[in-house]
């Protein structure tokens, strides 16, 4: 999580005074990292965020709004630094009054002036229609500071239209250098204006006297005529005509003026509507902008716009704003659903998961998206593991594994070759190498179970680190942004993580149990319970894996365990893997000893009866080399890695290994007895002439193809003597060197 920045500090504003909607430049420090980081700007208590234009971390340009306070601070608020402070202030000036006939470069709001047609006062008295220069002489603005004048005339004003008008202030401000004669002229001008006003009213009355008298004469004539006729009929007729004329005139006037006033009201309404649309176009365009940015994948822009709209219009009471803000909320809810679907999609990278979780937290999505993602990843890993098993079981049943199983280049692998000791047999002293009865070519074809374990462990090692890192990020709160941290969402997440530690521990244990049971089902099916065989087993066990492949599997599982330990997963969760490794090591030892006994049993077929000067054949040497190579192939299995227990810690294992070792010795003794008592006709000497052992390499060799039973017995006794004095002692030393228990029992049988 990034380090918190310093709060914003405003150190200058230019200009430092002005009327509403004045464009100002704000300078300072830590004013944000970008336009999206700026979330608040007030001048004299008025929100100016809508007009703000972020230029750099030390400069912002905006327009001053219609503030309530005449003088106030400039406060900048950012996501990264919070609410800032100000060392300067801005003074809001009252705008100058502009007459209806005065030239002006600004728009004059007509609603703020007196409407003489309707005789309605819309905020400013008719006094404001006076000329801008009431004295009628040249205005000479003085250089007196405004602050000094305010202190000299507290509560007063130089505006002659104000109720608190101060004549002295007006003269000092506008005529401080005017001569006395000019001031006399100004007095005369004021008197003339006052007389014109009175004369104007009187002249208006005088000008209408003729019309008044004409109307009076007409009415008198009508009245006299009515009296002369004396008939009610004429009176009613004339009266009705007069009323009709007056009504038509009144209706015509009303129609004309209503049409004009209606057009004005319509123009005012249109102007106000355009003003509202222009001022609040951010909100009106926001639903469409959200849709466009979602399609482009600019989720950060959508979130910033939503936060801005929420702070400005979240609690509005204006119906049109409510309607558009509700549309914004509908778009945001659809975005939450879209991001949640993307979060739960598999496969997905850790970077994308963290990004979608941060988006959902900034949008205040309900529930706990991070925990939902952890649960989805857990189920996906389990599904991958079982799908892997099903695919390999299906392939094994549908094809010949010896023809279609992949080849493993064991010699080029960084891990020790599981068959290195047995596949490369050194030349023996007697010229005959130990050859296994199994096919060497098929030995390098990996069985389906071995390939499956390789694939399964690779899958877990590749997926579990991201799963574990996602949980760690969930615990320490690094999944959330600084906005979520300030809103308290991070603390709630940490609290939820503490409550769900046991649930996550169960998830890890379930993954480990599935991994171990799937491997057991492929290699150690007898170790599964009855109800687990169908779920984790299903393999066709035509023949058991050799010790070489079991050694390879053990090395693979060990490397996987080391990779998981490097993630700092607690050891108690990985103990089940150590138990699996121990069982595989024990099984590998037993299988290797069993195969060794079979190889030794076939040594009788390889006896060539070629003796050296000491009367020995190659049989004792072949026997010793067979034992040594078997023990050497078990070296990596017998060695204990960190965290592993000795394979001989269990008494039953010691007894089983001891019995197998004794069985090997007994098999060889039976082999010697078989050779010494074999009838003459059963001796196969056809291979002697083609044997690679030649006199020039191994000294005196007697190739007699007609050995009698006494000669064979004599050679067997010679071999037995050599075995007793040398071979068995060497074998016992190797057993002890590799940690075998009960060596005395093993050698005692000899």
UniProtKB/TrEMBL annotation:
Residue stretches of biased makeup (Polar residues): 422-436
CC terms in the record's Gene Ontology section: exocyst
Exocyst complex component EXOC2/Sec5 N-terminal domain residues: 133-747
The entry's keywords: Exocytosis, Protein transport, Transport
Gene3D superfamilies: Immunoglobulins
GO biological process, one term: exocytosis
InterPro entries from the UniProt entry: EXOC2/Sec5 (IPR029175), EXOC2/Sec5_N_dom (IPR039481), Ig-like_fold (IPR013783), Ig_E-set (IPR014756), IPT_dom (IPR002909)
Keyword Transport: yes
SUPFAM superfamilies for the chain: E set domains (SSF81296)
Record function comment: Component of the exocyst complex involved in the docking of exocytic vesicles with fusion sites on the plasma membrane.
Subunit structure: Component of the exocyst complex.
Family to which the UniProt record says this protein belongs: Belongs to the SEC5 family.
Name of the protein described by the UniProt record: Exocyst complex component 2
Source organism per UniProt: Acanthisitta chloris
